[in-house]
């Protein structure tokens, strides 16, 4: 049976890991703290600590024998921490690793004034954060060429799913309807991220680049309005973008406006999205009790 090693067992990667574990895969990976490592050990996941500031103790041993690897740790100012501290450990597994997926972001494309982008488009990041992503992508593809490890890039849209969605933000009072005319965001359900990664594992293509987004880029306020309707409550008032109080990072997301095509994951990988738009995703989350008591109305 296959073994998956994940650098950064966070929200998206854990969804994939648990999905594969249910099918008998061996799962190992890194977390930032001992408490989370202990919690995952209770699930049968071998987790070792790696905070990105130095080599992680036990990483090399836990990585050994993994034929599939996911990297979901973002780069810092000093570059990609996995390549910085564990390049040699990965290179030693070159004869074993059949697939390595680097989880990136569609933010690397920058602003397209609402236009559609495909994987063939050049990157054009508008923030230092996304510029570092472009550098990391380049470094990972080069690493793959040097070692013979098949490296794929997955540029992911805004992620939502259980515990992280408009229903929850409405319930806890943090939802806002910020309106910037013409602005759309791309998004994807976390379960569909796992579907795409699994499909790529079955059809690895070294150097492959894939956009992970659903079929319906949409204004962010529309998502909040729809979720509020499902909950049977009034949505928060609309706030013009210019008047909204926002953190610099939150405001930076509105500096890029684009629509991400997902044609490649369908045509090349044969993916059929479980949640092709935000409505179907919110509907399923609502039925699962998100944003309300499971037994509530």
Radius of gyration: 19 Å
- Helicity level, as a percent range? 25-40%
Oligomer: single chain
| Ends apart, CA distance between termini | 44 Å
Assigned CATH class of one domain: Alpha Beta
Q: What class, by secondary structure content? A: alpha/beta
Written overview of the protein:
- This protein has 297 residues and is an alpha/beta fold.
- It has a domain at 3-161 and 188-215 and 261-274: NAD(P)-binding Rossmann-like Domain (Rossmann fold, 3-Layer(aba) Sandwich), CATH 3.40.50.720.
- Helix content is 36%, strand content 18%.
- It contains 11 helices and 13 strands.
- The strands form 4 sheets. It has a 7-stranded parallel beta sheet with strand order 3-2-1-4-5-7-11, sandwiched between helices.
- Helix 1 (11-21) crosses helix 7 (190-202) and helix 8 packs parallel to helix 11 (278-287).
- The longest helix is centred in the middle third of the chain and has 20 residues, at 128-147.
- The N and C termini lie far apart (44 Å).
- The mean pLDDT is 96.
